Amino acid sequence: MVAMLCGVKDISQAPRSICAMGHKWMWNRDLGGLPSEEFLVSVDPLMTGIRERLNGRYATSDTIAGGLCEAWAERLGLGWPEGMTTRLGPISRASL
After folding, report:
1. Containing H/E element for 53?
2. What is the value of pTM for the model shown?
3. How many Cβ atoms sit within 10 Å of the Cβ of residue 59?
4. Which pairing describes strands 64-67 and 85-87: parallel, antiparallel, or unpaired?
5. pLDDT recorded at residue 91
6. For residue 86, what are the CA distances in angstroms to 1, 27, 50, 82, 96?
């Protein structure tokens, strides 16, 4: 959602919440991020390649993810308040 609001087109630049990734994907900075490919595949072979698909910019929930893109500002009826920022959330919507 945050990447969409910021107009991110390249998935490798998608801002990702460490909080959400920690409790959903066992992401841990001290352990180098996500569990190894070998571990994930041992849990379920369908997870082959998931590490590559979950790349992005990992950050804490107090981090500014980026600026609201002009297209979404207009779609939401905000005009385009240049400089309006979007933060990463502490949890994702699916966690609610």
Report:
1. helix 50-53
2. 0.63
3. 16
4. antiparallel
5. 57
6. 10, 22, 26, 12, 20
Q: What are phi and psi of 89, to 5 degrees?
A: -90, 155
CB-neighbour burial class of residue 43 (10 A; exposed 0-12, middle 13-18, buried 19+): exposed
User: What are the E-state strand segments in 5-55?
Assistant: 15-17
Paired tokens of 76: 């939401």
In the DSSP assignment, the letter for residue 36 is P
pLDDT per position as a tens digit, 24-64: 788 888 888 889 999 999 999 999 999 888 888 888 888 88
| List of residues 6+ apart from 4 with CB closer than 8 A | 72
